[in-house]
Amino acid sequence: xxxxxxxLSNWNPSDSNPCKWSHITCSPQNFVTEINIxxxxxxxxxxxxxxxxxxxxxxxxxxxxxxxxxxxxxxxCTQLTTIDVSSNSLVGGVPSSIGxxxxxxxxxxxxxxxxxxxxxxxxxxxxxxxxxxxxxYLSGNLPVELGKLVNLEVIRAGGNKDIAGKIPYEIGDCxxxxxxxxxxxxxxxxxxxxLGKLSKLQSLSVYTTMLSGExxxxxxxxxxxxxxxxxxxxxSGSLPRELGKLQxxxxxxxxxxxxxxxxxxxxxNCKSLKTIDLSLNFFSGSLPQSxxxxxxxxxxxxxxxxxxxxxxPVLSNATSLLQLQLDxxxxx
Length: 332
Description:
It is a single chain. This protein is mainly beta. Helix content is about 0%, strand content about 25%. The protein has no helices and 24 strands. The chain has strands at about 25, 30-40, 60, 65-70, 80-85, 90, 105-110, 115, 130, 135-140, 155, 160-165, 180, 185-190, 205, 210-215, 225-230, 235, 250-255, 260, 275, 280-285, 300, 325. A hairpin with a 5-residue loop joins strand 1 and strand 2 (about 30-40). Its main location: membrane. It is found in: Membrane.
């Protein structure tokens, strides 16, 4: 029909099979194995008869203004390894039937208008590596069943303003995790000590949420951590000395919390640090001498605290420093 985008102009319904159509890949037996449509304005509802494609391995329709709900019969395409329907206008919930897809490695649903809770059935997708749910309207708690996803490398559920409750302790069982992104949600309670079991974790982004309590000392065991983003929360207590064990840490953004006590000297052992932002807290004591050891340090932001004493002369050894903000303290 005239409404079909020109990119799909060779989709001829009278062909015996769709294997020569653009954006379609078939097996040698002429079964459809891949649909790959990116950044083409379809403005069509989510396809409803996918279960007839029983050999489909990859379904990629992203940035195409797909509308309507995700069809539950997607769970019948048992060969699927990749579902990417990101950056569309999809509504409704994440179908629990996706839990039937035991070969699924990538579930990429970000940047839609999806609602409801994250289905606990996803815990059965044991090969899942990437779970991208960010920038939707999802709500409810993070299911403890996520702890069964031992191959999970990336979970990003940020920007869902009504995801609430605690970060489940079971997340520590996802020992392949590289990225945990839960920013701009209503996640609350304490960071679970089980995060210390994530020995491959590179990025922990739980900022602009409702986290409270102290940073667990076990975080020192996340030896691959590069980015620690916990700003704009209600965290409190002293910083654990164990942060000094993080030899790969580059960015420590902890501003706007309720931390107090002295800044631990041990942070001077984090030799990869480029940015330290501890502004808008209640830190006291003096500026650690050890910060002179931070040869990669580019930004040291300590404004709006209760830091006293004088600026240590050894700080001049941090020769990469570009920004130094110490205003609104008790420095003499």
